[in-house]
Design brief:
This protein has ten helices and eleven strands. By secondary structure, it is of the alpha/beta class. The strands form two sheets. It has a seven-stranded mixed β-sheet with strand order 6-7-8-3-9-10-11, sandwiched between helices. It is globular, with a radius of gyration of 19 Å.
Length: 270
């Protein structure tokens, strides 16, 4: 049996006297869709930073496909197949979408230092970039500086850049945040069409994105985890999107009405 694509074991992170993540253990199988939502201060950002290597844990381990990567840097984890996007775009405003994708593909191939020359001479890179531009409906703006693009197009570009790394695990931070309603459908459609074999974790996501991810998930099961500090209510949706099943971890004992209300709201809409 293959190991999980992403796994944590008793992951903890303390900042002085504050415990931001406590004893977090999870497993995401290849192709899984997993959503993490919860109120401010629940530790969502800390958890994702622990997974991606931005922050080192106080204790516990992170594994990618069974390999312990706890001590690895962000870029070394990226080379092992873990990519992420951010709530606030991390783009080069003066570069065009085509240039940024050429840079991303060239870097993945170990040719980032000479990406301009390589992209012009290598038809495979050009073909891959053209395919990504078409896939995310960016071909019409491929030569425009990124700062001139509508915000929804910038969000699509960031997802395209993450996919240019050909990740095994993709972590998306509220991909539709700040996107006008008229452009949000493009983001949701892009999420629904992400490769079936890529393990995807979304966090701080809107209800609309949660429902869309689950309804269109190619994975056998889609999980939604609602967090509050170090406790969680986990929701599972089966293959057909029917027969909602809720499994809770200490939720009733906590008496967190907001948690139960959110869980019931998610369940009612799926």
């Amino acid at each position: 049996m293959s190991p999980p694509a992403l796994e944590t074991r008793a992951l903890c992170r303390q900042f002085g006297g504050l415990t931001a993540a406590s004893n977090v253990s999870l497993k995401l199988e290849q192709g899984a869709r997993h959503a993490l939502i919860g109120p401010n201060g629940a530790g969502k950002t800390t958890l994702v930073n622990l997974l991606s290597g931005v922050v080192k844990p106080s204790s516990g381990v992170v594994l990618l496909a069974g390999e312990d990567v706890t001590s690895l840097s962000v870029n070394r984890r990226a080379r092992r197949g873990l990519a992420r996007t951010f709530q606030i775009n991390q783009l080069f405003p003066d570069m065009t979408p085509a240039e940024q994708l050429c840079l991303a593909v060239g870097e993945r191939r170990g040719q980032g230092a000479n990406w301009r020359a390589v992209a012009g001479a290598d038809g495979a890179i050009a073909g891959e970039v053209e395919a990504l531009l078409r896939r995310f409906d960016l071909d019409g703006v491929m030569e425009r500086p990124t700062r001139q693009l509508a915000y929804g197009r910038q969000r699509l570009l960031e997802i395209a850049l993450a996919l240019a790394l050909r990740p095994r695990i993709l972590i998306l931070d509220e991909p539709a945040a700040g996107v006008p309603a008229g452009e949000r459908a493009d983001i949701l459609a892009a999420l629904a069409a992400l490769p079936a074999d890529v393990t995807i974790a979304l966090y701080r996501i809107a209800q609309e994105a949660t429902n869309n991810m689950v309804r269109h998930a190619h994975a056998r099961r889609a999980w939604v985890t609602l967090t509050h500090s170090d406790e969680a209510v986990r929701l599972a949706v089966g293959d057909d999107g029917e027969g909602f099943d809720r499994a809770s971890v200490g939720a009733e004992q906590l008496g967190l009405r907001i948690m139960r209300e959110r869980a019931e709201a998610v369940g009612a809409r799926l």
